[in-house]
Amino acid sequence: MTSYTINVINRSGYDKSYSVFQAPPPMPGGQTPVYTNAWATLQNITDEGFDSVTYTVEGADHQAPRFVIAEGDYVPGQVIDPPESANVATVDFTGLPQTTAAVTEHPTGDFSVAYA
């Protein structure tokens, strides 16, 4: 059993909610993917605050999970098609020994991801 943790840190200057989606498979030809399966919502994180979510995989033979974090308060299971200008963070544990990711939204609206 392996647990992966995502810490979302809000340094945007505003209180915000974030949603965590299972990352879609790569799309051929540069098509915009549909982010399905809003897996978790981290509601109303205050500026300079954080929240976290943990994903646990049973069994030794599994692919490392990939997630997309976006601003918004979506309902788990909700399907969205974000505009191309949507600013998101991709968390990809593939090939990494780390099991924790810190996703930070900065005042510019950009995201950064650091693994530990």
Describe what you observe in this structure:
This protein has 116 residues and is an all-beta fold. It has one domain (2-115): Immunoglobulin-like (Sandwich), CATH 2.60.40. Helices cover 0% and strands 47% of the residues. The protein has strands at 2-10, 16-22, 38-45, 50-57, 66-71, 88-92, 100-105, 111-115. The two termini are 18 Å apart.
Largest sheet: spatial strand order: 4-1-7-8
Mean pLDDT: 85
Strand-and-helix sequence, N→C?
EEEEEEEE
Structural class: mainly beta
Question: What is the domain total for the residues?
Answer: 1
Rounded to the nearest angstrom, the distance between the terminal CA atoms is 18 Å
Which architecture per CATH? Sandwich
Strand content: over 45%
What share of residues is helical? under 10%
Assembly type of the chains comes to single chain
Overall outline: globular
The beta-strand count equals: 8
Count of helical segments? 0
CATH topology descriptor: Immunoglobulin-like
The radius of gyration computed from the alpha-carbon positions, rounded to a whole number of angstroms, is: 14 Å
The poorly predicted ranges are: none
Largest sheet: 4 strands, mixed
Question: How would the blueprint of this fold be written?
Answer:
Elements: E1 2-10, E2 16-22, E3 38-45, E4 50-57, E5 66-71, E6 88-92, E7 100-105, E8 111-115
Parallel strand pairs: 1-7
Antiparallel strand pairs: 1-4, 2-3, 2-5, 5-6, 7-8
Task: For the structure shown, list the relevant keywords.
116 residues; mainly beta; Immunoglobulin-like; 4-stranded mixed sheet; 4-stranded antiparallel sheet; 0% helix
